[in-house]
Amino acid sequence: MDKPRVAFFDFASCEGCQLQVINLEEDLLQVVGAVEVVSFREAMKGHSDDYDIAFVEGSITRHSDEERLEGIRRCAKVLVALGSCAALGGINCLKNFHDQEYVKKLVYGDKALLYETYPARPLKAVVPVDFEIPGCPINRNEFAMVVKAFLLGKKPEIPNFPVCVECKMAENICVFEKGMTCMGPVTRAGCGACCVTEGSFCWGCRGLVDDPNADSQRDVLATHGLSVQDVLGKFRLYTGFSEVAK
Ligand code: SF4
Ligand code: SF4
Ligand code: SF4
After folding, report:
1. Would you say residue 119 lies in a domain?
2. Which residues line ligand 3 (CB under 6 A)?
3. How many angstroms is it from 221 CA to the middle of ligand 3?
4. 134 and 170 inside one domain
5. Using one digit for the tens of pLDDT, what is the confidence trace for 86-134?
6. pTM
7. What is the DSSP string of 26-65?
8. Model confidence at 234, in pLDDT bands (50, 70, 90)?
9. How far does the centroid of ligand 2 lie from the alpha carbon of residue 226, in Å?
């Protein structure tokens, strides 16, 4: 059987999710052995438009991105959004809450007129997406799991329960007990609550679970001293493109 041909692409992003793929170390050899990588700018020279699976990182931030993404969609049998910028719009959507001319000037100064930009959006706002791997950055083990599932012809399973479940399994003390606030109750698990385990709190980087109890989360954050603006900021950090952050 021919190996599936795989290509990686990036739009507005820090490329940290592609770096996680390169950081797979020994698992990378297994993955690379099972597929044929035909395009991966961060890791190899050369490019081919003949591929089966496209992993696309980054969010769409200008009209010219749409044409390029539509071309990738036409070539790919399976299109996977790699990371929260691609899957959710992610941190790039923070600019959507500001005047776009102001944002452009802030970034490009007196060269602002030379650059096009529009409010950031996830891939699925432009083309159909077959699968999403959330996270900022992605969890590389989850990426390996997704590739293995594709190779076996199975649908990969991304958790649809909150980070709090994994946080309890890790036997962490809840940060609300320590005077901090946390987005774990409404955020999709799959990271093992790593930020809490490492002494921080959940910032919400994997996006919202399906049907999140956003009203209760807003109430809890307000009860712990956050202003309306602070609560909005918590929801907007990664999920600004979603309705709950509007
Ligand atoms: S999701 Fe995060 S790590 Fe991945 S490309 Fe976007 S900003 Fe970078
Ligand atoms: S620290 Fe955050 S993720 Fe952990 S149990 Fe508390 S609210 Fe949930
Ligand atoms: S704990 Fe929250 S912020 Fe940290 S990786 Fe998991 S989902 Fe992202």
Report:
1. yes
2. 163, 187, 191, 193-196, 202-206
3. 17
4. no
5. 999 999 999 999 999 999 999 999 999 999 999 999 999 999 999 999 9
6. 0.94
7. HHHHHHHHHSEEEE-TTT-S---S--SEEEEESBB-SHHH
8. very high
9. 17
